[in-house]
Structure formats: structure tokens, C-alpha cells
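Async update (no meeting this week)

Hi team, since we skipped the sync, here's where things stand on the single-chain job. The sequence we agreed to prioritize is pasted below, unchanged from the tracker. I ran it this morning and attached the output directly underneath so nobody has to dig for it. Comments welcome in thread, and please keep replies under the output.
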Amino acid sequence: MYKDIVSGKERVAVVGLGYVGLPLALEFAKKVDVIGVDVNEGHVAKLWQGVDPNGELGADSFTGRKISFTTNPAELKGAKFIIIAVPTPVDKYNKPDLKPLLSATKSVGKYLKKGDYVVYESTVYPGCTEEECVPLLEHTSGLKCGADFKVGYSPERINPGDLEHSLQNTVKIVSGCDEESLEQIALVYELVVSAGVHRAPAMKVAEAAKIIENTQRDVNIALMNELSILFNRMNINTYDVLSAAGTKWNFMKFSPGLVGGHCIGVDPYYLVHKAAELKYHTQMVASGRFVNDSMGGYIAKQTVKRLLAGDKAGSYKDNARGSESNNKNGKSTVNNSPLTGINSAINSGNKKGTTLENMRVLVMGVTYKENVSDIRNSKVSDIVNELVSYNIDVDIIDPKADAHEVLEEYNIRIQKEPIGLYHAVIVAVSHKEYVGLSADDFNKLLLPGGLLVDVRGIYRSLSKEFRYWSL
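Output:
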């Protein structure tokens, strides 16, 4: 099979041309004939024009590639090695949503032939490929896995916006339904991955390896976020602590922040789901998800607290004393939350009767991470929605995000430029366009005495220039 692909006798197909599938398809197209399949007609039209709908790849990435693009799954009849790279999100209850994966599997199954290979790259819980996908392929095609066609799993390791760790220089995990398929799949991927491949002994092992890569990061970031909440109560800057602790050779360098996107903020839920099926409660993984999912609301509440307190915002202990006094007077209207530390005394520093109705806040950045246009599962929306719930007037800007997509996904309008002056500026995403901003830049955005909220701690040098807070 590998020899037939290299010789041009057979073709490779990639189903799903998003952040994962498109770079993979174009890389293969340097060496072999490729069919790219996607359900989005608008995206396919752009691809024929040499335009990446995801905004990641330039026109030169399409030049000289042996590839065709289509929305017609019947074209899969012309391929021998089929890679499925579609999204695997969670639903509103944080349960795995396998609909895109199973839909793609059904489409592939309709045109599956004897001798074909089907390799999955989508992130799933261990066992999903064999328990969900293979039976559907067999049912739809009328063929038998192993005897008539082969299946493998090779998890994607694409990191959007990362130019250093590419498909080519990142080791690829490969696995197959038997020894023959493992070897053939490894040979095919070695065509495009110069760093080499790691042959996993089973598909479940490869699935588990992928899901713990992101779960490990999620849990470690959750620890940093929890420490940030604690250090805030101690009136200590978390990034100063991490800078000091990082001088030891074996200290793992993670930092607090918002955890969104289609990987780290989603994949652990797949592991939690599978654990629940096995009657096991993943305490650490689930707790980490709770902490990270809460950070958007926490940042917004801390912003509100400081807006109300003005220059009287002090340490957690100072505000806690104010909260006790406020409770005795029966004037509190905000619910107590052990995570935020605001308690019912969010107005404790509000000595001059400041209200929120006339407050204006600018949020800078709405994508799920820096230097990408991807807004999927962005936790910045949690900050915005929490602020709006306090009747604060919120403006949002982002040099990367598509305004139409943001409106459609989150019902949030973003604008091209800031308008007027603001009581607070929240730099939620550290895009390269924001990293070099100076005190003069923020003076043009903030009212006198305005608050700078630095989520990622990139403006610590300005902490004495403004009222300042960071995680």
C-alpha cells in the first residue's frame, strides 16, 4: 500500500480541512497525490483560490501541491489511505460530542473498498476508535476490519500559531489494528514527519497518550490558577512568585490564565467521561477543569471589585473586614463565592457611592490564545458576560478575530478601535500587537485613576504607573 502511494498509483485523502487537516493535507501533497474533503462549501471555495480559511497558512503553502479540494465524499473512492481529522468538541453539558466524528466515519464507510486504510487523528477517549468508529465503518461498508480494510489512530499534535513546533519536526505517534497496518501507517507518515514516528503497541495507547498530553497541561495550569487566587488574598503577585521559583532547575514553568480552545479546555472532559463509564471519579482532572472554567468569571469579579473600591482596594484581609461590616448593615447584594474571595462585600471600598451603570471597560483580545484567529471555546466570553451582568458598558477589540464569527458564536460584537476613555482595560489575550504597549498607550485608553487588568502578567513593569491587577 505504501509503495502504491509513493509511486502515484494510489492517493491519500484527508477528511476535515481545519487547523489539523489542512496543514497535513498540504504537507502530504508535496510528495503524493491528495484529495481534501470538507463539508464547508465556503472553505473549499477559498482553498481552490489558495486561501487558508483558518488564517494560518500563506498562499505559498498551496503552490506546487498535488491536491484537489471537494465537498463530495464520493471522491473518496479514488483514495486508498484516508485520514479523518474532524473536530471532537463537547456539548453544553461538557459531554463528548462525537457527531462530527461519526458523521465523517459514515461518509467514509459508504465509499470504503477492500484494501483501504482509515486513520483517525481526532482526539478521543481511549477505546473510542474501536468501540464507536470501527463498528460504524463495518456496518456502513459491509466490510470487515482487519480482513477487508485496516484502521489506525495517529493523534494530531498541531499547535495553532506555533511556528517552532510544526508537523514536520514533531514526533508522530502511530498505531494500527494489527502489525501490518502499524508498519504501513508508520511508513506513510514518515513521508511528511522528518522527526520520525513512535509506534504505539495499540490504538488505545495512542488515544490515551494524546488525551493525557493536554490533561497534564490543564491540571498544571489549574494549580497555577488556584495559587493565583490564594496569592491574591495574600497581596502577592503570582508572576513574581513564579519568577523566583523558576530559578530552581526542576521547577516546572506553568503560568495562570484562561484555558479555552479546542484542545486543553475540552480533551480532559473526554477522559472524565470514560472514567465515569468505568465507575471511577477523576478527582484531580475534574477539579482542574472546574478551576480553569471558573477563571473568566473570577477575573471579571476581581475587576468589578476594584472598580467599586477605587484607590481604596487593598488586600484580601482588608476587604474581608469591610465585608463583615457591610453584612451587618444588610446592604450586600452579591452572592458569596469561595473561589472569588469577593464575598458579599463587593461594595466594601465604595465610600463615595460609586455605581457600575456608568462604568466603561475595554477588553483587549477575544481569541482563545495569543496570535491566532481561533475563537472556539474562548473563555474571554466569560469575562465579557460577567461584566455585562453588572450593567457595565463593555467594548471588545481583537486584531485577529473575525467579527462575524464572534457575533455568531457568542453574540458579542467586537469593534475595530477603542472609543473614548475607559474606567478599566483588561488585556485578556497577549497578541503580539499588545505585548509592546507602553504606559503612554494605556494613558490614551484609561481615565485618570483607571485600572489596568493584566491577565497574562506582561505589563508588570507598568504596575506602579496605574492601578494594576494581574492573576
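Quick observations from my side:
Residues 314-353 have pLDDT under 50 and may be disordered.
The CA atoms of residues 28 and 130 lie 26 Å apart.
Reply here if anything looks off.
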